Amino acid sequence: MPTWINYWTCDIVNISGWQKCSAMITLGLDWRNAIGAVMIGCAWLIIPLLANGYIGSKYRIPFPIAMRSSMGYYFANFAIVSRAVIALFWFGIQSWNGQACMAIVLGAMWPSFKHIPNHLPTSAGFTTQQMLAYVMFWLVQFPILFIHPTKLKPFLIVKAVTVPICSFAIMGWCVHKANTMGGTGTLLAAGPTVHGSAFAAAWLRSMTALIGGFATLGLNIPDFTRYSKKPTDMYVVAPIFPFIYAILAVVSVVSASCTKVIVGKVLWSPTDIISLWPNRSARFFAAVPWLIAQIGTNVTTNSISAANDISTLFPRYLNIRRGQILVAIVGGWAMVPWKILASATTFYNFISGYAIVLGPFAGLMICDFYFIKKRKLDTPALYDPHGRYRLNKVGTNWKAAVAFCCGCVPNVPGLAKAVKPSIQIGKAAWIYYISWCFGILATSLVFTILELCFPDKSGSIVEEPVFAEEWLAEREAETGVVTPESDSYKEKQPEA
Predict the structure, then answer these.
(1) Burial code of 338-351, b = ≥16 C-beta within 10 A, e = fewer?
(2) Pick from 195, 231, 255, 440: CA 20 to 30 A from residue 433's CA?
(3) In angstroms, rounded to a whole number, what is the distance separating the alpha carbons of residues 292 and 165?
């Protein structure tokens, strides 16, 4: 249980988590409405986190394998590729945020670093100083990526303790500085800067962006819950997730609001605030915990997840470690994260955009497991390309494809407008403002109706669940061959 608490603290409290909350102020919300959007978003997120996390903890299978039950053996690759691409983007985003931490650390240690002249054009999207810091961060992070999740406990504990302390220190400085400038009272009494339909749009966009930021984890949570000692361990997410995020929301939103008074504009990243501090030691010790946070988040959330997806797609050529190397190179460099983090608006458009596909995937996964399969899966068959979950010759569940389109396509006009604001789509934009919520609900409804009207006849619905451990034990009894995955093999191994 403490390990799961540490995990959720580490996964939530990072720079992008701070930015998701503080960027709401840039959209025109005040601190009260921003915190409200965070809490409602957390309530939505608990649904896929608990529902899909249980699948991994019960059957010990990762997300790519679990997805085959609802979409078919080969059609599931579409969800796997989509999830992998998004994880690559997030790996780059978290790494670029880590660059900001590294730049502060280097500048605090060697003040001359801050005076390195820029030799790059504005169109590059970054400066020479930023690229040097990014290379340093990438090199420090790279070897840590290969530590097994079960060995990360000490690292996660350090992150879980130091980052919250640093967060409160930043908020304390912001409040004190704003108070000395006579702006704290006015700030707390101030309301939103947008009203009417503009306020509603800003509030819904903020909620959806928050959900979108964790929608990836709502899908691939089985990648981590598969390591839990018992299925009930991951239930800690229900009280812990909203509690931790509520604290982060208060800290980040109050800090961002105070920077309006301090510098005249909203600073939506903690590294921007730390950079204002005159004391070199303070900057160093405040930036190091955030640097650790970015590495920890990339290891636990992006590197392992994307590597799982990629190794599932190309098992003959790539294992998880090779997949992590590919993620570090492609995600860290080819995804140009500096463009996504160019502004709060660009960042919000990105995380709201991919929510249009992650919501439908989550809906398919939940409805299939709980309402269609009745929580009964044949684990070995999920790994068999010719097994019961192939469904047909093309390995595709057409009902899942139709349901996915019903949850995704209505959001496409809104995504197009977000990319090119000059496009006029009328009221269709409101669907996009709740893209993830609409996607999961519409897909769930259509998929359930289709499965009831056209029940499966391929044998994918089993009477009793089949667990991998039981199947391995039966095969061992029949053949006499002991596999490394079986309990008897583990019992024969000498203790370390």
Answers:
(1) bebbeebeebbbbb
(2) 255
(3) 13
Residue 171 is classified by DSSP as H
Q: What pLDDT shows up at residue 371? A: 94
Confidence of residue 495 (pLDDT cuts 50, 70, 90): very low
Q: With the C-alpha atoms ordered 98, 99, 105, 108, is the resulting torsion angle positive or negative?
A: negative
Does the pLDDT of residue 484 top 60, yes or no?
Answer: no
Q: What is the 3-state secondary structure (H, E, C) of 74-123?
A: CCHHHHHHHHHHHHHHHHHHHHHHHHHHHHHHHHHHCHHHHHCCCCCCHH
- At residue 246, what is the residue type? A
- Dihedrals φ, ψ of 122, to 5°? -60, -35
Nearest to 456 by CA among 72, 51, 66: 72
Which residues pair with residue 378 across a beta bridge?
A: 466
Give every CB contact of residue 457 below 8 A, 6+ residues apart in sequence.
none
488 confidence band (pLDDT: 50, 70, 90): very low
Whole-Å CA distances, 402 to 194, 266, 405, 406 = 38, 43, 5, 6
Neighbours of 7 (CB within 10 A): 23
How far is the C-alpha of 481 from the C-alpha of 311, rounded, in Å? 26
Burial of 28 (0-12, 13-18, 19+ CB in 10 A): middle
Q: In this structure, are residues 408 and 357 in contact, taking their beta carbons and an 8 Å threshold?
A: yes
Which residues contact residue 237 at a Cβ distance below 8 angstroms, ignoring those fewer than 6 apart? 4, 8, 46, 49, 50, 53
Average pLDDT over residues 120-130: 89
142: pLDDT strictly greater than 70: yes
Question: How many CA within 13 A on the CB side of residue 328?
Answer: 21
- 95 and 263 Cβ atoms separated by less than 8 Å: no
Q: Of 325, 295, 298, 301, which is closest to residue 311 (Cα–Cα)? A: 325
pTM of the model: 0.86
> Quick check: helix, strand or coil at residue 480?
coil
Asked if 382 and 65 touch (Cβ cutoff 8 Å), the reply is yes
Q: Return mean pLDDT, the chain.
A: 86
- What pLDDT is stored for residue 189 in this prediction? 65
Which residues have a Cβ under 8 Å from the Cβ of 310 and sit 6 or more positions away?
84, 318, 323, 326, 327
**% residues pLDDT > 70 (the chain):** 92
Q: Closest Cα to residue 377, out of 451, 452, 464?
A: 464
Contact 434, 357 (CB under 8 A): no
pLDDT value for 491 = 43
CA distance 418 to 205: 11
CB 11 within 8 A of CB 300: yes
Report the percentage of the chain scoring pLDDT > 90.
45
Residue 471 token pair: 């199947």
CA dist 203 and 209 (Å) reads 10
